[in-house]
Structures are given as C-alpha cells and as structure tokens.
Amino acid sequence: MKARFPFIILSVLIVMSIILGACAKVATPEAPADVTVAPNEVVVTEAPIAEPVTIKYWHTMSDAEAAKLNEVISAFESANAGISVQATRYAWSDFKTALLTAIAGGDVPDTVRMDIAWVSEFASQGALMQLDGFLPDFDAIAASVFPGPLSTNKWDGHYYGLPQNTNTQVLVYNKAAFEAASIASAPATIEEFVADACALTDTAKGTYGFAEGGTYFWAPAPLFYAMGGKIVDDGITTATGYVNSAESVAAFTMLKDLYDKGCMSPNLLGGGIATDAGQGTGIYAMIIDGPWMVDIYKNNYPELQFEFALIPAGATGTSSVVGGEDVVILDGSKNKEAAAKWVSYLMSVEAQKALAQVGVIPTISSLAGDPDLPAHFGIFMEQLKTAQARVPSPKWSDMDNAINNAYQRILNGDQTPQEALDQAATEINALIAQ
User: Fold this and answer.
1) Which CATH architecture has domain 170-320+395-433?
2) pTM value?
C-alpha cells in the first residue's frame, strides 16, 4: 500500500496539468470581418471571349449572284457572332490555276464553291476535308438534297463536299414548229422523240427536228442515261459491260440513225449554227439544254415561243445529267469549325431560297414546287429527281475524251456503235488502272 502511494500522487498531478492546459486560452489568427466563406462554395470564372474568325470563301459567281451572296453573308454573320466571311470572286478561266497555286503555297481559302467535276480531283490530291464524320449535320443535309448532285461529292467511299447549287438539262421545243407539224405535245418516250424529230425535219427548208451542241458527253448524256446507258460500275472499277453494254450501244445507235436520216443537224461535228441560234431562228425544233435558256431567249429571241419538257423516257423512265457547283472545305484551312458552320448555312433553306432569286437552282429536294422559286425551276427540279452525275473521278476529263472520240467515229461511220464503245471501254479501263 505504501509502495503505490507515490504513483497515485504522480497520476493526480499529471491529470491536473492536462486539465489546466486545456483551460488555457490559445491565440488564433483573426479572419477579416467582411469575408464569409460558405461551405462547399465553388468559385466560377468567365470563359475567355473567342477571337474573331474570318472565313475565306472563293467562287465564280455572276454579278447578280455575287450581290445576292453579300446578303446571305450578312444573314450568316448576324446569326454567328465572331465569324465573318470574306468572299472573293474569280473569273472561271483563272479559278483552277488560282486554287492550285494557293494549295501549293500553303495559303488556302477556307471554303470554295467549285465545279462538280473538280471535287474528286482535288480530293484525290488530299486537298479537301472529308465532310462525312466532320460536319455535325452532314447526314441531315445529305438526306435533304437530290441524290444526283450529292453523288458528285463522293470519292473513295467518302464525301468531300456538298452540292451548293445544281442544274440539269431538259427538252426545249419550239411550240410554233410543233403546231405546224400538228404535234400536240412534247414527246414522252424515246420512240415518240425519234418519230417527232423526223416529222419536224424539212430538208427543203433546211430545218431539223433535233440538234445537239457537240459530241462531248454532256450533249448526248440525257438521252444516253434515259435509255439506260452507263459508263462505269458504281465502284468505278471497270467500264467493260457498262459503256459498251446493250443499253449504251442502243443509245448511240439511235443517235446515229437520226443523224443518217437527216433528222438531226450535222452541226454537232463542227460548223453550222449553234443550238440556241438555230432554235431561236426556227431552224431546230428541239434541243436539249439547261435553265439558262430562259435568259438567252429573253435577251436574244424575245419572240420565240418555247417550252420545257422532261427528257423522253426510256425503258426505265426519264433521266438526265447533273451540272452545278459543290461547296468544299480545304484541308489546309485554319478555321475548319467556323468553315463548317458557313457550309451548313449555305446548305440551309434560307440561303438556298435567297440565291434562287437570281437564278440559282437549289439542291434541297423539298423545295421543288415552292411558290417562291421562279416558275421554270419546276421542270428542272422534277428532272433532278432522276438526273445522274458524270463519273466522279479525277480521270473524268480523259474519260470524256474517250467517249467524245467514240461518238465522232460512230457519226463518221468509221466504226459501228459497238466497236467504238468497245474501244472506249478499253481506254477508260486503262484510265481507271492508273
């Protein structure tokens, strides 16, 4: 018992010292009187304002189109703060050289409206942005436009542009000539077309039922496509069995027969009277051409009474050929996201209808029959439902030459249609293989 007493006293002293220490005042730093910190408070800072972006847009529009484009640009800029569009117009003859020079120098425009035949060429060189998978609303836009114009943007399985504007060819006929020949309406089928072409021909007067502008593929393409002709397979791997197929041969045989019978003007082999002048002066009863004929005839042959009609139908229906321009984004653009917004706006109903006011046919199929569009657009937009593109290949120009030369050999009697197109198939296959 005596041994434990000192330990008890020591324990009591330690406990008392702890209690006294706990009671002592401890100094703490004072917080500023005017600051209150709320629990879990998050401090938010404003995001930095994006730098203004200027998109360069190159084109070859007419005076009227360029003026309307300025209105379209203003509307776009109002809806897209911080993005401005700098449009530059080039003469058609200088445009391709300017683009190639810009690409070679590494200082490219962000966006370009280019001929549909150029897209595959520039895409194959790696100069264009692939739009499917990049443009946020690509699928919706692609679904809204005519399939023929859209197909001009496809190369190697992807799309490198969108159809900004389009055109096609339809039958143009002289109403007075039809009335004089007691023909009540435009031919609806290839058979009626052949019969009418010969019925409208008067060799004594030097008038012809039909005339083509040349032997380059654009000229016979509408009738060729309407009769089921093809140039290559869908994958652009061969021309054999396509450009020399039974349907393709039949199309050129029909044209050769019209030529030999004198029912088609010989002007397409050079010389003679151009198709617009010939129809405007009553020499040609029928031609195949585009919407620009409205202004040409209004300005040069105001007394001419003419009408448009669909290309006469072959076994599978009517068809024609696609023309126009596509809008693309250059791969070297430093403003791709802003450029994508501009491209999407150009493909909007608002922009398409605005440019339609100056004669530019929209590519949005739902606008067919829109009362705000020029009246003559109706027949062309109806034709665009089945119109087909020329081969979207960087070798198209050379393919065109092969067909052009074959057509001339056919007309001159140097080869039968089958022989000429067999040779064209061999030449086109060689181009595909390059």
Assistant:
1) 3-Layer(aba) Sandwich (3.40)
2) 0.87
